Amino acid sequence: MIGIGPGDPAHLTQAARQVIEQADAILGYGLYLDCIAAVAPHISREASGMRQEVARVKRAIELAQVGQHVALVSSGDAGVYGMAGLLYEVLSHSSGAFEPAVHVIPGVSALNAAAALLGAPLMTDFAAISLSDQLTPLDQILRRVEAAAQADFVLCLYNPKGHKRVQPFAQTCEVLQRHRLPGTPVGVVRAAYRAGQCVTLLTLAELPAAEVDMLTLIIVGNSKTYVHAGRMITPRGYASKYDLGEE
Q: By the 8 A CB rule, do 163 and 132 touch?
């Protein structure tokens, strides 16, 4: 189980690259396989689409059962909204005697990639919340957003909006505006380290009108977050203990 990072092969870890190069077969969502097309191109690949995750995992297990070393890839880190959990879930529900050896190879997550492009917004406590209500009820998502907003966490919002799935994003913006000032810095990063990358700094008041989709990650600052020289910064607390000015 491999996390391939945000998409640019330069951010694929050495460990992930080695496992991919030693595999007999590589399985994954088509877009993610495209991201690593130049890595071990001679190895057999099987691409599948969105919402075919369970079938993909079962196919990987099937290939492992006949002795193949299978690289099942996931974007970012496979254990952060990735495929690692589903793989273990399927295995835990299996009644068969076969139990493949599973190794999870970590990757650079989308929140790490987006934060690096924005500056340093995650220097203190933060919460990651997916706004996709495909698997999680919307009321549960909004309760989590409310709790995190009240607690003054920096917020990393995954999967903000789909073609038809617009309500979670709209309602999340309403919740945030009840607990954060209109000028709160917000970073919007689309396709981090991929073709078409777009990095935008705006305010919470401007967020509802922002163009976002499933390839977008949003980082909402807390009450201390500010912008300097085009960079989003959340202080860790050093200024309260040390003189950060010039000598």
A: no
